[in-house]
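Archive record:
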Amino acid sequence: MPDEAPEGGYTAEPFLPDRGGLPALRRAAAGCRGCPLHLAATQTVFGAGDAHARVMLVGEQPGDQEDRQGKPFVGPAGKLLDRALDEAGINPAEAYVTNAVKHFKFTQAEPRKRRIHKAPSLREMTACGPWLAAELAVVEPELIVVLGATAGKALLGSSFRVTEVRGTVLEEEIHGRSERLVPTVHPSSVLRSDDREAAYQGLVSDLKVAARALG
């Protein structure tokens, strides 16, 4: 397995295993050096949940708590997402959750100071794309819930605008597969909102569209 991405190329492709399901992908992703984000992050944060889930939720990248614990959506945004899913009629335990980018990208003024989330670049999202494609191929979800603009750009291209399509069912070809998607905001944006209750109800409303699409 290579130590770094090929010269001039950001890509996780050389680090993907030839065979195996999610456990093999998770083990391989732990050693991914496909872009420089691995240098500062504590660890790779791979997807988690039901390997045969009908719904896959795709966020942007791990946050501070996820980076420390090695699991996606375990921080405040993840707890809010679980509550919203439950309220919308989707059992969080039956979903598969992951991120478009598997390493935490952050800025930090000084050591021991709080690490501030920084949005991944298109190049970093593209580099990490093979992991997301592999997860989709293994899980084969009936529906993808797209959480926020970064996840939407990673799956649907740079012209994606979450405000234009949130709460609708899209049908698109993603990594060679025909997929149904319901975009919504990232739960962290609800936590940052001036009117948190209204933002939360908007998220629940979008997730109810996803629940109906699942039937």
